[in-house]
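Q: Predict the bound structure with iron/sulfur cluster.
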Amino acid sequence: MERILVSSCLAGLRVRYDGAAKPVGADLFEHWRAEGRLVPFCPEVSGGLPIPRRPAEIVGGGGGDVLDGTARILTDAGGDVTDEFLRGARLALETARRTGARIALLKEGSPSCGSHRIYDGTFTGGRQPGTGVTTALLQRAGIEVFDETDLEAVQTYLTTLEH
Ligand code: SF4
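A: Predicted complex:
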């Protein structure tokens, strides 16, 4: 059975920077949970950051640039949390490999988990196209990353892998 690495906050765990969760709450998602497919993982908490924590944004590029050392991740107070984000991304990839997950379902917009949009690094609420650090690392390793708005695409890909 194919496993799905999933952002812990989407699975209902209260791990976000503000101490909240973002449960998907869709029948398909709950079906995967009941099948035992879901592997919840939070890169930021696993990387060593607390709950709650200061909001952080990628400054100077996207997740791939952070992996390449040309962009950093800063909090709204100016603290540098790049190392924690990188550690969390590496642990996410290790978890995917250990569990055999070739699919990830990650929270859109996050500097770790975003797959289409991230905040623009100005802490003004502006967004730009881009991926988070964990997403970028998983994609480089060949793992297909989806966001929570496209569960049907996850199901289609699952079906492709299993047949
Ligand atoms: Fe959710 Fe990912 Fe942020 Fe953790 S790092 S709270 S899993 S979006």
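A: The CA atoms of residues 40 and 150 lie 18 Å apart.
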